[in-house]
Amino acid sequence: MFKSFMYEGGIAVPAIAWGPGVKGGKLESAMAHVTDIAPTLFELAGTRHPGTEYQGKPVLPLRGASMLPLLQGRGQAVHGADKAIGWELGGRKALRKGDWKIVSANQPWGTGDWELFNVAQDRTEGRNLAASNPQKLGEMLVAWRDYVRETGTLEIPNLANRPGYSNGAKYYEDLKYEATLVPRTAKP
Description:
alpha+beta, Arylsulfatase, C-terminal domain, two-stranded antiparallel sheet, 6 strands, 26% helix
């Protein structure tokens, strides 16, 4: 698969880090996410996130964690095994929790069914464990539903199995008629 797909080939990217206390020549395979950049920069700057309000305006909480302990050799992971991190784009979705990951790919690249992988043992996601480990799949699906609820992720199931949709503009053109966008000022 390629970028915009939720398999590792689509979402795993290399990064180069440099900064105070970061030792060179080190290769690290711990999982980090784009949401970890802001907390890392806050820590480097010696400041913190303003909380729920800034200058009288509401502020959303940060979902990520600082990568600085990992980068400076003071930790071995950015996230604990219980942290759920999700992705959704164009009917394709995934959730990673510790070594486990579920992926749903729309047609023609997949069936739309959830697949289960242990990415620590199978980084290329070649062995779908959904049928052999239904208990873990169920646990991960509960985590996905929690993630969707907590983040307000819009699942668009009516687009998930339409083969004509990939990364093109037609998807976004139809989306404006099929999804209700919630203003940023709306409260849950």
